[in-house]
């Protein structure tokens, strides 16, 4: 009998976390599951630990990938999965209740959909937990004329009923197995949106749903670090992802507002990136070098082309500058003159980061 759910867990230098995470998954009330651990290039003994867990637990399978990267580990897990449905879990996260997988399974089967998304819980190192819901009630979305606008969040465009992350969702296994065939880019930080946009727009998807309940607990601050280098890499990767995302959205009949919001996010990301570097007191020469590179990315040029084609009356002063043919020096000077004040939220976040490192 095939398992109902395959839980795919990429592992990289995860000896501090993986045993706890696997224990949490195996303690679920749904017992007809399999756990697929895919270790890729660790230097801390993670592979030996995964193999040891698999030897003791018949529902766990451990594999090693010579190719580094979270997406490639997930791709291997997807290809090896034999469950009817697939969920993803990161090596340092957990589930909120022991009934989580059962309820996720019940939801996707009851809704008769290929993908179902839930809320999530952000767990901070200071003990605070924050519940995140995109919707207040269940929604079932059909593959009709409004589909692209409703699921646009999964393709990396702000808004709609879905988000980009993979671990808030349960997928029909056949959809993911087909989707990964179309994902050829190896990305580091934009891998979730890269997989989701191909999954949500797979020809086999007829219905998707979103629910308010939160089952997944994301341990914020463990893993990805939002430093300047990573933010630049993320923006570079979006130059690959956004081109494909825009193509898929347009092929599926998205509205003009979705295209507008996608391009708006691109031009304002550059502004926020420059402000972030200024706040971190990076040398101006380094900021200029980054801006010179980033302003030539394909999705930046597409965004400028889009807005420059609009009637002038639809633009405002800030946007006019952001889509102009500025030099890196002019852009940096504009950012210095228009530097926003720190919000109360940002000040609190900075204090919490300091407390963490005390």
SSE inventory with pairings:
Elements: E1 5-11, H1 18-26, E2 33-39, H2 46-56, E3 60-64, H3 70-80, E4 85-88, E5 94-95, H4 100-111, E6 115-123, E7 129-132, E8 139-142, H5 147-150, E9 169-172, H6 173-179, H7 191-200, E10 207-219, H8 228-251, H9 256-279, H10 284-294, H11 298-308, H12 317-322, H13 328-337, H14 344-356
Parallel strand pairs: 1-2, 1-4, 2-3, 6-10
Antiparallel strand pairs: 4-9, 5-10, 6-7, 6-9, 8-10
Helix pairs in contact: 6-7, 8-9, 9-10, 9-11, 9-13, 10-13
What do these coordinates show?
The protein is an alpha/beta fold and 358 residues long. Helix content is 46%, strand content 16%. It has 14 helices and 10 strands. The protein has helices spanning 18-26, 46-56, 70-80, 100-111, 147-150, 173-179, 191-200, 228-251, 256-279, 284-294, 298-308, 317-322, 328-337, 344-356, and strands at 5-11, 33-39, 60-64, 85-88, 94-95, 115-123, 129-132, 139-142, 169-172, 207-219. Strands 1, 2, 3, 4, 5, 6, 7, 8, 9 and 10 form a 10-stranded mixed sheet that branches. The longest helix has 24 residues, at 228-251. It is globular, with a radius of gyration of 21 Å. The model is unreliable at 351-358 (pLDDT under 50).
Q: What distinguishing features does this structure have?
A:
358 residues, alpha/beta, ten-stranded mixed beta sheet, 14 helices, 10 strands
**What do the pLDDT scores average to?**
88
Query: What is the helical fraction, as a range of percent?
Result: 40-55%
Main sheet record: 10 strands, mixed
SSE sequence, one letter per element: EHEHEHEEHEEEHEHHEHHHHHHH
Task: Indicate the overall shape.
Answer: globular
Instruction: Calculate Rg over CA atoms.
Output: 21 Å
- Which quaternary structure do these chains form? single chain
Distance between the termini: 51 Å
What low-confidence regions span 5 or more consecutive residues with pLDDT below 50? 351-358
Number of strands: 10
């Amino acid at each position: 009998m095939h398992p109902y759910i395959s839980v795919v867990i990429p592992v990289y230098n995860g000896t501090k976390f993986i045993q706890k995470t696997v224990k949490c998954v195996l303690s679920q009330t749904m017992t007809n599951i399999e756990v697929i651990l895919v270790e890729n290039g660790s230097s801390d003994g993670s592979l030996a630990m995964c193999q040891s867990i698999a030897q003791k637990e018949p529902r766990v399978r451990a594999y090693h990938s010579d190719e580094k990267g979270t997406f490639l580990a997930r791709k291997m897990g997807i290809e090896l999965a034999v469950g009817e449905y697939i969920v993803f879990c990161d090596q340092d996260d957990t589930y909120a209740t022991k009934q989580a997988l059962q309820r996720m399974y019940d939801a996707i089967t009851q809704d008769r959909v290929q993908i179902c998304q839930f809320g999530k819980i952000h767990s901070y190192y200071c003990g605070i937990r924050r519940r995140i819901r995109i919707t207040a009630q269940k929604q079932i979305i059909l593959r009709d004329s409004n589909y692209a606008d409703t699921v646009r969040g999964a393709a990396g465009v702000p808004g709609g009923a879905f988000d980009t992350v993979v671990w808030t969702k349960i997928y029909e296994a056949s959809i993911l197995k087909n989707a990964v065939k179309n994902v050829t880019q190896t990305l580091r930080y934009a891998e979730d949106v890269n997989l989701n946009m191909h999954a949500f727009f797979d020809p086999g998807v007829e219905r998707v749903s979103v629910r308010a309940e939160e089952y997944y607990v994301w341990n914020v601050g463990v893993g990805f670090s939002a430093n300047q280098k990573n933010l630049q890499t993320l923006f570079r990767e979006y130059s690959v992802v956004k081109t494909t995302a825009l193509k898929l959205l347009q092929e599926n009949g998205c509205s003009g507002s979705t295209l507008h919001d996608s391009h708006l996010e691109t031009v304002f990301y550059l502004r926020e990136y420059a402000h972030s570097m200024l706040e971190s007191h990076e040398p101006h020469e380094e900021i200029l070098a980054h801006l010179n590179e980033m302003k030539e990315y394909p999705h930046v040029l597409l965004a400028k082309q889009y807005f420059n084609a609009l009637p002038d009356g639809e633009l405002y002063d800030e946007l006019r500058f952001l889509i102009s043919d500025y030099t890196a020096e002019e852009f940096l000077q504009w950012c210095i003159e228009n530097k926003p004040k720190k919000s109360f939220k940002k000040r609190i976040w900075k204090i919490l980061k300091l407390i963490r490192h005390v």
